[in-house]
Write a structure and sequence with these properties.
Elements: H1 17-27, H2 30-43, E1 47-49, H3 61-64, H4 70-75, H5 146-150, H6 156-164, H7 171-182, H8 194-202, H9 206-224, H10 236-252, H11 262-272, H12 276-280, H13 284-289, H14 295-305, E2 328-332, E3 342-346, E4 354-356, H15 358-366, H16 374-407, H17 409-414, H18 424-431, H19 435-442, E5 446-449, E6 452-455, E7 463-465, E8 471-473, H20 474-486, H21 496-505, H22 512-521, H23 527-530
Helix pairs in contact: 1-16, 6-7, 7-9, 8-9, 10-11, 11-14, 18-19, 21-22
């Protein structure tokens, strides 16, 4: 074994606390950023929201198109002082070889490195002056948020309990009915058998269990009589049968809204008594052989069943509606010749107005010589870095969005059919950033366009080869498949193989399996289920 001494020169990027915070803020969504700002405002006394309008340089294409220097490319990751990096990290051409930017910020108490000064600078002023002050995603009392209003919705249980109050029941039957109502799932089904529900209440007392099952059976009949029809069913077949029986009852009472044929309803009831896989496959021949009805009646009955509600509780589910607030706004400007122009700007509603508290900063500056204020000086430096990192976050989002709009001009002019293939590497190379940075920018960030609001990731996609030697975006291929299916004959829907051949006629090489994958992604049923009866 020989011992020796060698000298090796290497480069690496130091993950300082400032850099870690910059990375973390970049990957946060709008809501998460708002929560992060609230926490920082509570924890750092030197940081405050500025509720007064102030002049500030606007963001737009003019700023985004400015050339980026090599020094700015380094600061894209962390606008830290040169001492935060190793002496060899000044070579910006090696940023792709840097450590992956996925580290989490350090624990509380880490040292926020800086130049040591506590004097206020122009950067300590408010940032994003034209933005509306935000505390969270909810507005004032007189300006209710749509999400808050969407949550005011009656639940299925409340709807059923209100109906149960009109029934004249004994205390025991009323308690049994209430228990069944509370046992329903979100779809309105009673998943647990009555015996299991009774055992959960009576333990091992057999006589008590039998008594509970009796009361639950009576309560289940009452539950089936409530609205929405089909609630309390144990499976899909029972849910459909309850709805068909209700239609038959309306038919016998000459209800004015009933326009169904009794014979078709009776055939539909018999179909619902068969295994559900026959109905799912629309196996008309098998149903006819089972004596359900004639071929014509079976077809009409299946069409009737398709109009029923398989999930009675669906309209009562209080689904939180996530209102998407775009981070970037894209609007069309006038055309210069044949080339359209688009304006790309940040959404002022998501840009916070932050500044360093002037009074506290001035007091600390006058007493900076005191060693007892070292902790406060660190918090002041932390507030400055937070403001700079938020500004850098929005600058990066705008730069990436502008590059995406420039690459996808055809989409903004003609729609998804004109989408071009685009990968993260192309934007990263154009802007001098790392692919991981582009990935963070395009995750949970949204862009409002003339064709709707899309996540930035929507504009990235692989390409399929074409006969001309070029490539077509997978997004455009999905749009073409959707058009083909929308124009197909309901009696002869297009199979995946036929769709593949039609794409080849358009010059796009797309295998049948790929067509099936895209069709399923569009939530379109296969040809056998799209066929009209």
């Amino acid at each position: 074994m020989r011992q020796g001494l060698s000298l090796r020169v290497s480069q690496h990027l130091a993950l300082t606390p400032q850099l870690q915070q910059s990375i973390r803020l970049l990957q946060l969504s709008t809501l998460e950023l708002s929560q992060e700002i609230e926490q920082m405002l509570e924890a750092n006394p030197f940081l405050e929201m500025d509720h007064e309008a102030a002049e500030r340089e606007q963001f737009g294409l003019a700023q985004a198109d400015m050339p980026v220097s090599d020094g700015d490319r380094i600061s894209e990751y962390a606008p830290s002082a040169p001492s935060d990096f190793t002496s060899s990290a000044t070579d910006t051409g090696k940023d792709q070889d840097a450590t992956p930017l996925s580290a989490e910020p350090g624990e509380d108490g880490v040292s926020w490195e800086g130049d040591g000064t506590t004097e206020t600078t122009p950067d300590d002023g408010e940032w994003g002056g034209d933005a509306k002050a935000r505390t969270n995603n909810l507005g004032d009392d007189e300006d209710k948020d749509a999400t808050e209003l969407a949550r005011v919705q009656e639940s299925l249980q409340a709807h059923l309990l209100r109906q149960a109050l009109r029934l004249r029941l004994s205390d025991t039957d009323s308690a049994a009915l209430r228990f069944l109502i509370e046992s329903l799932n979100d779809d309105g089904y009673l998943e647990d058998p009555l015996e299991s529900l009774a055992q959960s209440l009576a333990s091992e007392d057999l006589e008590h269990i039998e008594d509970l099952v009796h009361h639950f059976t009576v309560a289940l009949g009452l539950l089936h009589s409530l609205e929405p029809v089909g609630v309390g069913a144990r499976d899909l077949g029972e849910c459909l049968r309850l709805q068909v029986r209700a239609l038959l009852a309306d038919l016998n009472t000459d209800a004015p809204e009933t326009d169904f044929d009794q014979e078709v309803l009776e055939v539909a009831l018999r179909i619902c008594q068969q295994p559900m896989d026959l109905l799912a496959r629309r196996d008309i021949k098998r149903l006819v052989l089972l004596g359900v009805g004639s071929d014509a009646l079976v077809r009409e009955a299946i069409a009737l069943i398709a109009r029923l509600e398989p999930k009675p509780g669906r309209r009562f589910v209080d689904v939180e509606r996530n209102i998407v607030v775009p981070d970037v706004l894209v609007s069309a400007l006038h055309k210069v010749g044949a080339t359209p122009k688009f304006r790309v700007q940040l959404n002022p509603d998501v840009m916070p107005r932050l500044r360093v508290h002037d009074i506290y900063a001035n007091v600390l500056r006058n007493h900076k010589a005191s060693s007892s204020h070292a902790g406060l000086q660190q918090r002041l430096q932390e507030a400055r870095w937070f403001i700079k990192n938020i500004q850098q976050r929005f600058d990066t989002i705008l730069r990436v969005s502008t590059a995406v709009v420039e690459r996808q001009k055809s989409f903004f002019t003609h729609g998804e059919l004109a989408m071009r293939p685009l990968v993260l590497r192309e934007i990263a190379e154009e802007l001098g950033l790392h692919e991981s940075t582009i990935s963070r920018v395009t995750t949970a960030k949204y862009m409002a366009t003339p064709f709707g609001t899309f996540e930035l990731k929507y504009f990235f996609g692989s390409g399929l080869d074409t006969e001309s030697g070029g490539s077509a975006s997978s997004t455009a291929v999905r749009a073409i498949i959707k058009q083909f299916i929308a124009a197909e004959s309901p009696k002869k829907p297009l199979s995946d193989n036929q769709l593949s051949e039609m794409l080849k006629e358009q010059g796009i090489e797309c295998a049948r399996r790929t067509v099936a994958k895209y069709r399923e992604g569009l939530k379109i049923a296969p040809a056998s289920l799209r066929k009209a009866l």
